[in-house]
Amino acid sequence: MCRSGVMRRMSILSVSLAVLLLVFCMKRAAQADPAHPEYASLLFDDSRVHTIDIQMEDWEGFLEQASRKEYSSCTIVIDGEICEQAGIRVKGHNSRKLIEKYGWDRYSLKVEFDHYIPGQSYHGLDKLALDTSFQDNSYLKSCLTYDMMAHMGVPSPLTSYVWVTVNGSPWGLYLAVEEPEDAFACRNYGDDHGQLYKPDYKSLEDENADVALRYVDDDPDSYENIFRKARFDVSEAEKLALIRSLKCLSEGEALEEAVDVEEVLRYFTVQVFVVNLDSYLGRTGHNYFLYEEGGRIQMLPWDYNLAYGTYTLGMPDPENDAEKYVNYPIDTPAEGEVMKKRPLFHQLMLQEEYFREYHRQFDRFLKTYFENGVFEQKVDEITELISPYVAKDPTAFCSFEDYETGVETIRNFCLLRAQSVRGQLNGEIPSTIRGQSVDQSSFVDASSVWIPDMGEIADLKQPAEKRR
């Protein structure tokens, strides 16, 4: 009797352990699912502002060495969870130089969890960017653009707002951005993902044909600005596959074999809408990620602090023409001399089928994001969430009043831009540079928008008492 009871209890215990083991294994399998990593629902839960504390003995020394852009060891505490010996460095080129020039120390940052400890991650996340909202009084440019891209089905970095402290002391409100590295690639394409590049120039004085995705020849050395910026080790086969894609692009033949046409058209829909001239469609030709798998390429979004017509605000002769940028042409979003050197856009637009699909994607974008109130609701939700943090941000580039003005400016810009694009699709407003040079009579009136209110270099020159 006693033995029978013991055996029964042991049997029950065995079943219970088996159930617990099954639940554990199922949970581990879910955690290991690359398409649904844990960090996506933790740090990138965008329904709240998260906390990140950077713990470092010599923070001042780290800031003084910002120009070197070298990693330093620190402890990162995310929402109370400690990650020791993470790598951290300053991010940015021109923005970093301008921040230094005007005596600021609010830099954008990169956090690499596995820099010192191979395999270390934050619940699967290997690399994180902390965006300082440089030249963005609204704190919205990057967040909104990535949301638009994701809405259109473009593989995009996850984002969330974070309240950053340094050794427990307030530092400021930042936007956390998932860096396109291994975790990003696994989340979007699976464990057997392809290659990821961030083409960029060394000097704007060079031709930089590779950054513009132009075919040069069959020698991989001719594409150094692409391959040196690969996120993973690149095989010779992968190099040759990409070069073949660029050759097809150059010749305008077999485009479906070389390009994921639908994805690229969805990318350009948003890219053109936000008037980002510091991009592939601008004179610089950079600020994008390139994904290649099976010889087909995709364009992925990156870096939008100079979008919404604000690119020229740092130039010697800034152009503050809101009417021009609100009505910016969707069919020729750059001068011919630039367009002809941007084959990933130019060659697709030469094909009537793809040109019509580009317009269909724009129509869908307007209907599902602007004309049904999604955009305005998104702006309201974000500003309600972050406004209390902006109000107390000790390192902000602008005053709270300037932030509120910036929010209304970007909101109005986008709503007017949507009206103009709808008019261009309907044939009521010219959709090319040439057409607009002849007739601007039907332009959407943008006189209520003052583009510098979204943020400009001049803001950096203001004394602290005026900013706050």
Task: Characterise this structure.
Residues 1-13, 15-31 and 464-468 have low confidence and may be disordered. Helix 10 crosses helix 14 (352-370), helix 14 (352-370) crosses helix 16 and helix 15 (374-391) packs antiparallel against helix 16. This protein has a seven-stranded mixed barrel. It starts with a helix and ends with a helix. By secondary structure, it is an alpha+beta fold. A hairpin with a 2-residue loop joins strand 6 and strand 7. It has helices at residues 2-32, 38-41, 59-64, 94-101, 141-151, 182-189, 224-227, 236-251, 255-258, 261-273, 322-326, 336-339, 343-349, 352-370, 374-391, 400-425, 433-438, 464-467; strands at 50-55, 72-78, 81-91, 108-112, 127-131, 159-166, 169-178, 195-197, 288-293, 296-301. It is built from 18 helices and ten strands. It is globular, with a radius of gyration of 24 Å.
Secondary structure blueprint with pairings:
Blueprint: H1 2-32, H2 38-41, E1 50-55, H3 59-64, E2 72-78, E3 81-91, H4 94-101, E4 108-112, E5 127-131, H5 141-151, E6 159-166, E7 169-178, H6 182-189, E8 195-197, H7 224-227, H8 236-251, H9 255-258, H10 261-273, E9 288-293, E10 296-301, H11 322-326, H12 336-339, H13 343-349, H14 352-370, H15 374-391, H16 400-425, H17 433-438, H18 464-467
Helix pairs in contact: 10-14, 14-16, 15-16
Percent of residues in β-strands: 5-15%
Largest sheet: 7 strands, mixed, barrel
Overall geometric form = globular
Query: What do the pLDDT scores average to?
Result: 91
